[in-house]
Extracellular solute-binding protein (Microbispora catharanthi), 431 residues
Amino acid sequence: MRRVLTSAAVAAALALAVTACGDGSGDAGSAPAKSAAPAEVTGTVTWWDTSDATTEGPVFQEIIKDFEAKYPKIKVNYVNVPFANARDKFKTAAQSGSGAPDVLRTDVGWVAEFASLGYLAPLDGTPAVDKPEEFLPVPSASGKYNGKTYGVPQVTDTLGLLYNKELLKKAGYDEPPATMADLKKAALDVKSKTGAGGLALNVDAYFLLPFIYGEGGDFVDVQNKKITISSPQSVAGVKVVEDLITSGAAVKPALQDSYTNAETAFKDGKVAMIFNGPWSNADNLGGKVFKDNPDNFGVAPVPAGSAKAGSPLGGHDYTVYAGSKNLDASYLFVQFMDSAESQAKIAGKLGLLPTRQPAYSAPEATANPKIAQWQKPMETAVERPWIPEAASLFQPLVDGYQKLAGGQTTTEPMLKDVATAYQGILKGWSL
């Protein structure tokens, strides 16, 4: 029997709550007009879904059919937009005033930026913000800017250490590594004793954060408006990664499409461990070494550095385009898609983590063991800065990480270059 998240786990999620922050640069939208009665609403809602088109998209389309059955006067134009292109594509469409969707599945790090630019409709007082008391506080905070709600949380996530139990067992390990030092040792043992790779890295800024957090570092200190990416703590974290690569504990990273390469190697049993999130559950379980043996698929918190175990809090929100001609239909669509019932269905079928507390106890969610498996990783999740510039902080770090992984630089000069790039993004912030 699969287990539900315990009350202690929910309490741990609640303990992550903080007040959302903005840049104080004024209102990013006007108050919404009074919504029409649901039965009177007509129109077409175009939704850009940024989830995986193969493993996740079909489930969302099933829920859309349920929505259209409940609201036969509203039709949904479903468009799957690759996540990597969605931010720039939406900004271009919103800026031009042509081609933007009515509703966007928005990364939590994009909401403040889009709201600050006036691209999002405020949702307070509309059906889109339904039963807000049910939301876990941190996912809910990601949708707020300057005291208003511009996004409602669809799913929450973080990174965990995913591992092949059989490969670790062959290398002499009954449990996954709990520290970064143990991670290196276990990866080297897997390499020497099984012939498989120990660890595959995704050369992406988001996936670098567990190492930085583990040593007490971060991108920035929002409260003091200070850039901390080149601090001694952040340097120590990235040096852990550099050592994993140079020691051979991590297989030589692919610099192009590293996510797919690492994921494929893990699913095929060519590496024992990767860092990834709950969105990859369905993909992993369809892989060669897990499809017929799902119990071989392990999930654990990211290993701890010298300061703590910590991985970035992520997820997605539903947002509504400020220029939508179908606001009332969009509000109802968001309300339906983000209900506890819909979240429970998504959790059950995909293993994605709900943002509403009641969804965790729904039978459909408790039927999926991956929901319970992600309990411990979520307890170590670290909230990211909800500032308009947040999404822009990733690319300089990605560029630096790729140079580091390719042997073109070392940690200290790489992070100094990143900090310099951040000064051009965060005007007036100190180093």
Observations:
- The radius of gyration is 21 Å.
- Residues 18 and 296 are 37 Å apart (CA to CA).
- The chain has two domains: 41-158+314-382, 160-312+386-425.
- The chain is about 40% helix and 15% strand.
